[in-house]
Amino acid sequence: MNSIHWHTKLFDELTVNELYDILRLRTDIFVVEQNCPYPEIDGKDKQCLHIYATHQDKVIACARIVPPGLSYPEISIGRVAIAPDYRKDGYGRVLMQLAIEKIAQEFGEQDIQIGAQCYLKKFYGSFGFKPSSDDYLEDNIPHVDMIRSASEYSN
């Protein structure tokens, strides 16, 4: 699909409609699809950098870059979501690569930590993330903390 547009914005740069669409996608996936009632709006978005993709004015993928100390001691990538109709098209890979590159550009090479759903260990592992915790339940869904070490990717 050549009409996919990628965007990166600070919270205050998002329009009301963009914010609404990002929150709707995240809620549709993390709360409704995964049948997991939890506080999706967690108070962190205002401090994050948001990366998202649109297709025909619809948000189809999103993630946020979370500053160090807000979720983890390290900078992190969170709320990675792809709309169901777009999951087999490789947009998850593009989204993660863009997030990693944006961190390097804006903040320099550094360790990146994520809290991944366990079934996605191999996916995140393909970007250099390695488990840094035992598996644990978060909102009744198996998760694992993973870190991508900057030292392995520095030249």
From TrEMBL:
GO terms for molecular function: acyltransferase activity, transferring groups other than amino-acyl groups. Residues 9-151 form the N-acetyltransferase domain. Keywords: Transferase. InterPro entries: Acyl_CoA_acyltransferase, GNAT_dom. Belongs to the UPF0039 (ElaA) family. This is Protein ElaA.
